[in-house]
Design a protein that fits this description.
alpha+beta; 8-stranded antiparallel beta barrel; 28% helix
Length: 271
């Protein structure tokens, strides 16, 4: 039963519900490589599934719940075209890869990788004798974990790139890993992406992560495509955040914070 603009109730025709559901189910099923395989995954008889598609039949509540859960949609598929629904499917939760990439994307506990500001350091990709220091922000939204930050102005100048905030900004999504987290990070409207992997360091303060960063560029004689990476969690400590913001940019290995320098193992080649 729907309420129209004048506040009156609109009676929903069961045939219309079946037709809308069938049309939406066809759209969802088309994202799967094989209808037979899809039926097996859903535990639904192929003949019965075809009746759903044609609008001849409607699933029981438990079967409808199974379908909605599988495709990560809600019961609005009974009333509205699938394209008009603001769902949380996304490419990483596409049926073809959701069990390989998308699984667990909403399951990164705060004690594994908490929200807040982080100071990071790594060898520069472009200046082999320098260290780059940066500041990023990690936050949760819509049950996902995201990263946001800005490249240092000097690092952009070194590459002959604009230094305006929009060009410097980067964002990424955090993915769970068996022994840490990974992040896919990119600038706006760019095809270049970096991959970060981080694992927590067992320490007294327990707020350091060590891993590596890689970037998607061609191999060159002088350029670096991978480097060790250190994250230091600052949380929402205003004083520490402001101090870190003032240190963003290039520095020499000798100027780097001692514990960052130790974790980066600058005297050891990165394999």
């Amino acid at each position: 039963m729907n309420i129209n603009a004048s506040g009156q109730e609109n009676q929903v025709n069961p045939a219309e519900l079946r037709k809308m559901f069938g049309a939406n189910l066809r759209v969802l099923a088309d994202t799967f490589p094989s209808v037979s395989q899809l039926c097996r995954e859903l535990g639904i008889n192929r003949t019965q599934f075809n009746r759903y598609l044609s609008g001849e039949s409607f699933p029981r509540p438990d079967v409808l719940y199974r379908i909605c859960t599988f495709f990560n949609v809600d019961a609005r598929i009974l009333l509205e075209p699938i394209d008009s629904l603001a769902t949380e499917r996304g490419v990483l939760n596409h049926p073809l890869i959701k069990d390989y990439v998308g699984t667990g994307m909403t399951d990164i506990p705060q004690d594994v990788f908490p929200d807040g500001f982080y100071r990071f350091s790594r060898r520069s990709f472009t200046e082999s004798d320098l260290i780059i220091i940066g500041l990023i922000y990690v936050f949760r939204k819509d049950q996902h974990t995201f990263i946001r930050g800005y490249e240092a102005k000097e690092a952009m100048r070194q590459q002959g790139l604009p230094t305006d905030p929009e060009t410097r900004e980067f964002r990424g999504v955090v993915l769970p890993q068996e022994d840490g987290v990974a992040a896919l990070v990119s600038h706006k409207a760019t095809m270049a992406t970096s991959f970060n992997y981080l694992s927590r360091v067992a320490s007294f303060q327990n707020h350091y992560w060590i891993g590596y960063a890689t970037r998607t560029v061609r191999e060159t004689i002088n350029g670096r495509r991978a480097a060790r990476l250190v994250y230091e969690h600052l949380g929402n400590n205003t004083g520490a955040i402001l101090e870190a913001a003032r240190s963003v940019g290039f520095c020499s290995p000798e100027e780097l914070f001692p514990y960052h320098r130790k974790l980066l193992q600058l005297d050891r080649p990165f394999a």
